[in-house]
Each structure stands twice: as structure tokens, then as C-alpha cells.
TrEMBL record:
Protein name: Acyl-CoA synthetase (AMP-forming)/AMP-acid ligase II
GO biological process: fatty acid metabolic process
Upper taxonomic lineage: Bacteria, Pseudomonadati, Pseudomonadota, Alphaproteobacteria, Hyphomicrobiales
Sorted UniProt keywords: Ligase, Phosphopantetheine, Phosphoprotein
SUPFAM superfamilies in the record: Acetyl-CoA synthetase-like (SSF56801), ACP-like (SSF47336)
Length: 674
């Protein structure tokens, strides 16, 4: 019943709602302040709510404070504040009168110093902490600092930036639609972060697109659990909620243990997050299942990186509401595609819900439905280019299309499916492996919380598939079990040769996996060096097996308990090992045997278990040994297929074409191992 009621809440009284798209943030906030000044805009734990009327007053005070220190509307102001209502209000109010550059408060002094120089800042807005890294960097770079004085006894998000009382400002002191609203940094998961300018027109349109996809209204309430220095939390979350005239709850950062309490206290109707946060919520909410089902949520939104079907299904079961998987990126002012509330398609990130989407081949030609290619975008929400990086801009844009670097396809219903990043595709011996597909298979295991797939060097194949896995706290599975599980869900060439159980997976602030860092940390070179520290094979039998592997793989050392797949074993290497064991010990192995016994010790035990008690290792039953020689030197009768072909040829001479099989007679003794 709970699920039915929530589905009805989604489908009634929300379709066909007229939505006004505001040209700039100033107009958006001024309109809500005029028509609903007492409606709640910003809320936070243990704080009084800030109304739209109070938020508009705060906007005017901040813009006046900026002008008072010489900051013009086209100047750039970095905002470095910890998560919470002040960070939300500062980002919006600064953007209303200048160009807001929200930065991660976790950066080091060196990072701030580098970014401050590249961004050409007019000022830094931050809290009055004289020892902070950003203030020290600003001092070195000569960037003026605007102190934010918190007012915790007042409404959530209220702060002061000037000693003088604000005065009325003319309209031209506020930023307009063509002005830049934000300069945002990309996630930088595969390269150094780029800076992306986004105009007021583009971010307001994108916020409206999010609202339309989710059918947001003034009665909705967002629980903001994402940092506001990335577009996901800032535009798809905060600004989308404000554009709809609704309210936003801004706690001081995400806390999985407090999440269910926030649901009870603030009664939000939606939240948006990255998969890592969704998983943390699931883990923490196990003891609050009944409360979660009775929550006020009507939907859950996901973006920034791939959401596994397992997490999606668990979220829907926990909250009893639809989970909306979406696709976005900073360069498109976030939202690109979204699943419709009533027509969600599993595995897809939805239909176009912002810019125009095309699938292009390497020559820039549009591909038909179902064909994989690079996802390309165009439309008014797309950035004009990267800040101070003409080369990156020229590389990203081609014939008016912005090329995302993502590989995907559109189906006949125009639902978009993401295969992975083109640069992250693993080229394994002529085969292409998409990390997202392998991650999806691994995440379907009930004990796997997180999975990250990446490439590691391989001498013969060029690259091999590796996976870092985070398990549930009480899980009792290992790499061997997970590899067997993956083999039941994936083609053999996609199964990770290297599986590592790790406590956490490195991710950027936006939640995207840092695959390059994983590849560097867990390269096979390191593993080979580490292997010499383990237990060496002690018995002569194990030393012989180890010698086979060393010879086949071209390595100097291997321990008795070292996983050979972590050392680069592939199908060719397994075949060579099978032949050597057959030749030296008279035991027939299969590829399945090596998969299930991937160490020297395990393989030795497996081979020993093949003894029959009558002496040496027994040879397995092999049908090839029962082939008898036939006296076939003379003419042979035609087969049924050949006879049919002859009849057709007689009736339709010269017309049919056939694939003709050939048999070759090989002279000499048959070698079964060969």
C-alpha cells in the first residue's frame, strides 16, 4: 500500500504543471521573494528556517558587500566554505552579483595556490580562520579575502560580509543571463581537472530541466547530501529545488548514521546522490527499514557515475519509491538524460532531458539506434569551452557537437545506455572490455559493496582486466570465489585476472573512481615484486609446477600461494600449462581446473587428488584416445548434405553458391597433447 500511495503521489497533480524558466539567478530569487516571501527556502539541523524573503535580503547584502570591496559582476570570487547552509547561500548569492567559483575546502595550500593563479580571482570568500590553507594561498597570491561572519542564532545560511548596512542596488549591478554564473571544476578522474564556465542562462535552464524530469513543485523538499563545489549538488540539487520554489535541507555534510533522523525531522520528498552515498545509506538504514518505508520521500535520484541494478533495487525496496537514474556532466550544466518517473528502463540512464544527444562514430557521423559510439551533445546548456584551454576546447568540440568521451548507444525508444569512458575501455589482446560492465557483474554479488575495474599491463595481451573490491563488513569471500562468480556472468575474456580486496576505493569529490590511481597502486610489477616475499614452493612437485609457470610467464619468482591470474595468466598460458602437466605427469587438466586452482599449492593438491592408488597420476578419460584408424584410401560415399547440393546444382546449374568444407589428411603419428 505504501508503494502504491507513493506512485500515485508521483503521477497525480504533477503532469502538465507550467514551469517558468528564469533567465538568471537574480530573477529566480526575486520572483519567489515577491510571490512567496514567507515560504521556507533553506533549512538545517538546529537552525531556524530561512524564507525566500530573507534569502532575497541576503542576496542584496552580499552583492552590496562585493561592490563595497571593488568586486564587479564579471569578476570571479572563490567560495571556500564547509558543507552546510552558509555554503549553499554563499554560492547562490555570490553568483547573483559576480562569478562564483566554489572550491573544495579539502584542497591543500599548494592546490589552492595553483588554482588561484589559473582562475584569475578577484577575491576569496571564506570563514575567518587565519590558519586555513586557502587563506595562506590567497596571501601568497595577493588575492583579497572577504570574511564570512557566521550568525548561528539566526536563520540557516545567514551571514555577514560587510560592516556597512546594504543599500538598494540598480538592476545592472546584478548578473544577467549572458554572464557567467559559476566556474566549476571537472572531476579530474582520468586527468587534471578542467575549469568550466557556465552562464546564468545555461544553469537556470538545466535546473529547470531537472525540475521537469522530477516534476518538482513548491511543496517538494530536497535533502542536500552532496558537496556544493560540484555541479551535481549545486545545480541538479540546490538550484533545481530553488528554481521550483521549494525548500532545501542543508546539513553540515553527509552522515549516513544521521540520514534516517533527517528524514523524520525534515520530511524531505527527494534526495540526489552518487552511488557511494546510496550504498552508505543502505548499510546504515538496515536497522531503520520500517521508518524508511514510512518516510516522506517520493523519489530518489542518482547521477555522476554508474548505479548498479543491485543498489537500485535495494533502494526501491527500502524506501518504496522510484529510483531515477540519470546522466550528466559539468560541461552540460549537469543534466543530460533522465529516466521518466513512470517509464523507467533498467540499465538505462533515461531519455534526453536537456541537450540534444547523438551517437557518433570516429569520423563524426551519426549512428543509428542500437549502434555503439561516442555520445555527443549540443544545445544551450553546453559550455562555450574550457577556461584558458584552447587545445582542450578544440579537441572536445567538432562541428557544433560536444564530444563527451563516453561510449554508449540509444535504443529505438531513445533511451540512452552508457557503456563506459572511451579512454577507460580495456584493450585486452584484441578484445574490448568496458569497466562498467564488469563492475555491474561484480556488484551483483551480495557481499560486494563497491567495485572498480581498471587496466593493468600485460606482456602478451597489452592489458589485462583488474578489479578492486570492497566487501561487506561480515563477508567471508575471497578473490577465487569472486572470480568464479564473475565467470558465471561474463565472457571469459572479461573476467578480471587480478582481483584485490581493499578497504576503500579512491574517488574524487564528485564520487567518480580514480582508475589511474588504482592502476598505479596495483600494477603487476608491484605484485611480482611482492610475490617473492611469500612462501616458496617446498616440495619437488610444487617446484616443478612453479617452474612451468615461471617459464610460461617469463618471470623469475612465484610463491606457492600466489594467484597466477594476478601475474598475467590468460587462455594461452593455461593451455600451455595443461600440455606441460599432461606431458610430465600424465594427468589431463582443463581450463576449469586452473580457474579453480589458481595457485601452485592449490594446483598441486588438485593434481595429487587425481591419483588412483595404483601408482603414478592417472590419465583422465579422453575420447580422442579411442579414435580408431579407418581404411579410407579409396573413394568414399557422398554425405547427405553433399547429395542435396548435387541435386540443386543439377536443377539450377551455375546459380547456387555453397560453402564447401574441406578435409585434410595428416600423415604421421597422432599427438593428442598437440
Amino acid at each position: 500500500m505504501s508503494n502504491i500511495i507513493k506512485e500515485l503521489r508521483n503521477s497525480t497533480a504533477r503532469k502538465g504543471v507550467g514551469r517558468r524558466v528564469f533567465p538568471c539567478i537574480r530573477d529566480l530569487l526575486a520572483d519567489h521573494a515577491q510571490h512567496a516571501p514567507e515560504r521556507h527556502a533553506i533549512l538545517a539541523p538546529e537552525r531556524l528556517p530561512m524564507t525566500y524573503g530573507a534569502l532575497w535580503t541576503q542576496v542584496k547584502a552580499v552583492v552590496f558587500g562585493l561592490r563595497n570591496v571593488g568586486v564587479r559582476r564579471t569578476d570571479r570570487v572563490a567560495v571556500v566554505l564547509a558543507d552546510g547552509p552558509e555554503a549553499a547561500v554563499a554560492a547562490i548569492t555570490v553568483a547573483a552579483g559576480a562569478v562564483c567559483v566554489p572550491l573544495n575546502p579539502g584542497f591543500t595550500r599548494d592546490e589552492y595556490q595553483r588554482y588561484f593563479g589559473e582562475l584569475h580571482l578577484a577575491a576569496l570568500m571564506t570563514h575567518a580562520d587565519l590558519n586555513s590553507a586557502c587563506r595562506r594561498a590567497a596571501s601568497i597570491q595577493g588575492v583579497p579575502v572577504i570574511d564570512v561572519s557566521m550568525r548561528p542564532n539566526e536563520a540557516a545560511g545567514a551571514f555577514s560580509v560587510a560592516d556597512r548596512a546594504p543599500q538598494e542596488l540598480p538592476d545592472d549591478e546584478f548578473a544577467s543571463s549572458a554572464d557567467d554564473a559559476f566556474i566549476l571544476m571537472t572531476s579530474g578522474s582520468t586527468s587534471r581537472p578542467k575549469t568550466v564556465p557556465l552562464t546564468h542562462a545555461s544553469v537556470c535552464l538545466s535546473a529547470g530541466n531537472v525540475g521537469a524530469a522530477l516534476e518538482l513543485e513548491a511543496r517538494d523538499r530536497l535533502l542536500s547530501v552532496l558537496p556544493l563545489f560540484h555541479g551535481h549538488g549545486l545545480i541538479s540539487g540546490l538550484l533545481a529545488a530553488l528554481a521550483a520554489g521549494s525548500s532545501v535541507v542543508c546539513p553540515a555534510g553527509f552522515d549516513a548514521r544521521a540520514f534516517c533522523g533527517w528524514l523524520t525531522e525534515f520530511q524531505p520528498t527527494w534526495y540526489t546522490a552518487v552511488p557511494a552515498i546510496h550504498r552508505a545509506i543502505l548499510e546504515a538504514a538496515d536497522c531503520h527499514k520500517q521508518g524508511a518505508l514510512r518516510s516522506s520521500l517520493r523519489l530518489v535520484r542518482s547521477a555522476s557515475t554508474s548505479l548498479s541494478s543491485e543498489v537500485l533495487e535495494r533502494l526501491e525496496a527500502l524506501f518504496g519509491v522510484p529510483v531515477i537514474d540519470t546522466y550528466g556532466m559539468t560541461e552540460a550544466a549537469t543534466q543530460i538524460a533522465a529516466n521518466p518517473l513512470q517509464r523507467r528502463k533498467r540499465g538505462s540512464v533515461g531519455r534526453p532531458a536537456g541537450p540534444e544527444i547523438a551517437i557518433l562514430d570516429s569520423a563524426g557521423r551519426r549512428l543509428p539506434f542500437g549502434k555503439r559510439g561516442e555520445i555527443a551533445l549540443r544545445g544551450p546548456t553546453i559550455t562555450r569551452g574550457y577556461d584558458n584551454d584552447a587545445a582542450a576546447t578544440a579537441s572536445a568540440f567538432q562541428d557544433s557537437w560536444f564530444r563527451t568521451g563516453d561510449l554508449g548507444y540509444l535504443d529505438a525508444d531513445r533511451y540512452l545506455f552508457i557503456v563506459g569512458r572511451i579512454k577507460e575501455i580495456i584493450h585486452k589482446g584484441g578484445q574490448k572490455v568496458a569497466p562498467a560492465e564488469v563492475e555491474g557483474a561484480l556488484l551483483s554479488h551480495p557481499d560486494v559493496i563497491e567495485a572498480a575495474v581498471f587496466a593493468v599491463p600485460h606482456e602478451r595481451l597489452g592489458a589485462d582486466v583488474a578489479a578492486a573490491i570492497v566487501l561487506r563488513q561480515d563477508a567471508n569471500v575471497g578473490a577465487y570465489t569472486l572470480r568464479d562468480f564473475a565467470r558465471s556472468h561474463l565472457a571469459a575474456f572479461k573476467v578480471p585476472g587480478l582481483i584485490l580486496i581493499v578497504p576503500e576505493i579512491p574517488k574524487g569529490a564528485g564520487g567518480k573512481i580514480k582508475r589511474n590511481e588504482l592502476a598505479g597502486r596495483f600494477s603487476k610489477t608491484c605484485l611480482l615484486q611482492d610475490g617473492g616475499e611469500a612462501v616458496a614452493p617446498r616440495s619437488e612437485f610444487k617446484r616443478q609446477l612453479a617452474g612451468f609457470w615461471k617459464d610460461i610467464l617469463g618471470i623469475d619468482r612465484i610463491s606457492a600461494d600466489q594467484d597466477v591470474f594476478a601475474l598475467g595468466v590468460d587462455s594461452l598460458a593455461m593451455t600451455q600449462m595443461i600440455l606441460r602437466v599432461e606431458e610430465h605427469f600424465g594427468t589431463a587438466l582443463s581450463i576449469e581446473d586452473i580457474f579453480s586452482s589458481p595457485t601452485v599449492a592449490a594446483l598441486a593438491l588438485h593434481i595429487a587428488s587425481s591419483k588412483d592408488g595404483a601408482g603414478p597420476l592417472a590419465r583422465r578419460h579422453d575420447p580422442l584416445t579411442e579414435i580408431t584408424r579407418a581404411d579410407a584410401d579409396g573413394p568414399q560415399p557422398v554425405s547427405i548434405v553433399q547429395e542435396r547440393m548435387l541435386r540443386i546444382e543439377r536443377k539450377l546449374p551455375g546459380l547456387p553458391q555453397f560453402n564447401l568444407p574441406f578435409a585434410y589428411r595428416l600423415q604421421g603419428e597422432l599427438s593428442i597433447p598437440a
